[in-house]
Specification:
Layout lengths: L6 E6 L1 H16 L9 E6 L3 H8 L7 E9 L10 E5 L9 E9 L3 H11 L5 E9 L12 E5 L5 E2 L15 E4 L1 H4 L2
Parallel strand pairs: 2-3, 2-5, 5-6, 6-7
Antiparallel strand pairs: 1-9, 3-4, 8-9
Helix pairs in contact: 1-2
Bound molecules: 1-O-pyrophosphono-5-O-phosphono-alpha-D-ribofuranose (PRP).
1-O-pyrophosphono-5-O-phosphono-alpha-D-ribofuranose (PRP) binds next to strand 2, strand 5 and helix 3.
Length: 182
């Protein structure tokens, strides 16, 4: 039994993901110039696959940095309590910052991150999220670039995990219920 046998259905096939990432990159290319030299902040771990594809489609000068946050509590729900596990290497004061997230669910993680980054006085702060689950939103968080809106199902692949696995799948899929219950 392989990882793919745990998938009930493919929600977003690889080709659609790749096409949308290229479109998002075009929108980002139209937003920043070389002089802006934006700093892409990848929110680990989930966003690493998205960032890797996105960065290769960007035409302007830019840099990448990484931040890892964790919401307390295991399972498939975000508790809303966030702590920083890994902070940025770069000082972002006066920099154009683009936060890159894999998925926005309740919005609490992103709210924490954007509030935290805002206190560091960036020149601008925008957010690019590959996936958004609007039906699950508990706090309002502005998203500047969004790849896909997804229904309230437990999705894995393309960086998104269940129990740290499935991140390597090249598509976004829905896990079988019996796997979630394991
Ligand atoms: C996921 C995702 C977001 C957050 C979204 O991260 O990458 O950061 O949850 O949930 P929210 O909108 O309800 O706050 P997760 O905690 O699963 O960590 P990971 O990226 O390391 O897998």
């Amino acid at each position: 039994m392989g990882l793919r046998d745990d998938i009930a259905k493919v929600l977003i096939p690889e080709q659609d993901l790749q096409a949308r990432v290229a479109e998002l990159a075009q929108a980002i290319n139209a937003t920043y110039t070389d002089d802006d030299c934006p700093l892409l902040v990848c929110v680990l771990k989930g966003a690493f696959v998205f960032l890797a594809d996105l960065t290769r489609h960007l035409a302007m000068r830019h840099e990448v940095d990484f931040m890892e946050v964790s919401s307390y509590g295991a399972g498939t729900k975000s508790s809303g309590v966030v702590r920083i596990l890994l902070d940025l290497e770069q000082n972002i004061e006066g920099r154009h910052v683009l936060v890159v997230e894999d998925i926005v669910d309740s919005g609490r993680t992103l709210q924490y991150i954007t509030r935290n980054l805002q206190t560091r006085k960036p020149a601008s702060l925008r957010v690019c999220a590959l996936l958004s689950k609007p039906s699950r939103r508990e706090v309002e968080v502005p998203l500047d670039f969004v790849g896909f809106e997804v229904p309230d199902e437990f999705v894995v692949g393309y960086g998104l995990d269940f129990g740290e696995e499935y991140r390597n799948l090249p598509f976004i899929g829905v896990l079988k219920e019996e796997v979630c219950a394991r």
